Amino acid sequence: MFFSVSMTALAVLATVAEVQAKAVFAHYMVGITSGYQPSDWSDDISKAKAAGIDGFALNIGPIDDYNDRSLQNAADAANQAGGFSLFLSFDYASNPDSNWTPSTVIDRINSFVTTAGNAHYRYNSQPLVSTFEGPSHSSEWAGIKSATNCFFIPDWSSLGPAQIPIDAIDGAFSWDAWPHGPTSKDNASDLAWEQSLGAKPYMMGVSPWFYTDLPGKNWGLRGDGLWSTRWDQAAEIQPEFVQIISWNDFGESHYIGPIRPAGVVPGANRYVDNNPHDAWRDVLPYYIAQYKTGVPPPVNEDKVVFYHKPNPSASCSDDGTLGDQPNSGDASYTIGQVSLDQISIIVLSTDAADVSVQVGSNTPTKLRAENAGAHQFAVDFAGQTGSVTVTVTRNGQSVAAATGPGISTDCPGGLTNFNAVVYGS
User: Fold this and answer.
1) What CA–CA distances, in Å, run from 405 to 274, 275, 382, 401, 417?
2) Residue 97's pLDDT is what?
3) pLDDT band at 414 (very low <50, low <70, confident <90, very high)
4) 382 pLDDT band (50/70/90 cuts)?
5) Which of 272, 263, 242, 171 is nearest to 26 (CA)?
6) Contact between 272 and 246 (Cβ < 8 Å)
7) Which one of 179, 331, 346, 353 is at 20 to 30 Å from 42 when CA atoms are compared?
8) HSE-up of 77 (CA within 13 Å, CB side)?
9) How far is Cα 425 from Cα 423, in angstroms, rounded to an integer?
10) Is a pLDDT exceeding 70 seen at residue 347?
11) For the whole model, what pTM was predicted?
12) pLDDT digit string (tens) for 222-235?
């Protein structure tokens, strides 16, 4: 099975009026950076800038004693790089028994505004601040805002758009970036958030994948085809901001940054090691430009990116991984019921081209990009194993190609790996 989606139809978005400059951020887990060196921060920011990302949303927990050091390293690297912004995202879910107090939040915001200096992102001249959850603390933010002059865009997605306390916020960030159950992601929740917010800015979550198998945290969501689909939705919806989930949350498998061994939490090495995601960034300049302008940009270089699970779903034990977060309406599914045995392919083509997808020595699947632009394809691997090669040809000549180690029924530790491997030309 395969399909192709051309983006030429999005050209109608050229008439969208631009009131504020749009921005794209990536969610960055400070809580895993105790072993990071200043060079790691500099490298991450360099790679993010090269992909067209405007800044990092720095997720911080209340009990990490290395926050000061890590935030200083982040600020130093951002200011040295120039043209890259930072803001704080207070994590209220990481340690509910030792949570943020208003006075600590105020001190942290005011301190980081000074530390970050010109690198602190501002909206309407106010320092932007966010959260990961914490709606039970909503009454505290009037005082926090008064003491810091911050522009407050929290993630209180657990409330849903209909229940958000609109008077307590300046905008909202939605973590609802994945489909639930055996289906594909639509934009219904984004439209609901925008309707509830009215004129207040919306920050849309965009993510390529989700899988975690850690103690007390064992579920996954469908990521097949999600990366390009979600960016196309951002171009259609035109939110004020996009936040990529995530740059470096290795334990949840949605990292788009380089794997840094010092940041991989215990238990996640089984499914993170040797599963690079860097090639997801290769298509970001195209998709970010499309989102910011509302118009598909010209493609100046042929590229191909593909991703898939390293193991078919039924290869080995799924370790009891659910197909959605526990206590959700779709948690009765297993991960094998929502994650497809499929290769997702993105082709950026300068003109019409042929696309070939081959698994091992099996007969290649032939596809066609009918015109210039971005094209999304999906190919079921249906029990095939071996290295995966995707080749883009034009007039009989290869113009882009990528090969990955492929698909295998050999599962390290006897457990199927539901993370993605990502490769590009």
Assistant:
1) 10, 10, 17, 14, 14
2) 72
3) very high
4) confident
5) 242
6) no
7) 346
8) 23
9) 7
10) yes
11) 0.94
12) 999 999 999 999 99
CA distances from 21 to 18, 24, 204, 238, 266 (A): 7, 10, 15, 11, 40
Token output for 2: 């395969």
Q: What is the pLDDT of residues 85-121, one digit of tens each?
A: 999 999 999 887 778 999 999 999 999 999 999 999 9
User: Around 183, how many Cα atoms within 13 Å sit in the side-chain half-sphere?
Assistant: 8
Query: What are the tokens at 386?
Result: 């071996």
Tally of residues, the chain: 425
Considering only 16-25, 141-150, 160-169, 345-354, which range has the smallest mean pLDDT? 16-25
What whole-number distance in Å separates Cα of residue 105 and Cα of residue 353? Answer: 54
Q: pLDDT tens digits, residue range 25-59?
A: 999 999 999 999 999 999 999 999 999 999 999 99
If we measure between CA atoms, which residue out of 172, 188, 54 comes closest to residue 121? Answer: 54
Q: Which residues pair with 205 in a beta bridge?
A: 243
CB 147 within 8 A of CB 112: no
Distance CA 187, CA 239 (A): 12
Predicted pLDDT of residue 20: 55
Tokens 């632009």, residue located: 373
In whole angstroms, give the CA distance from residue 390 to residue 425: 9
How many whole angstroms separate alpha carbon 45 and alpha carbon 168?
32
| Neighbour tally for 418: CB within 10 Å | 27
Nearest to residue 192, comparing CAs of 214, 168, 162, 213?
Answer: 162
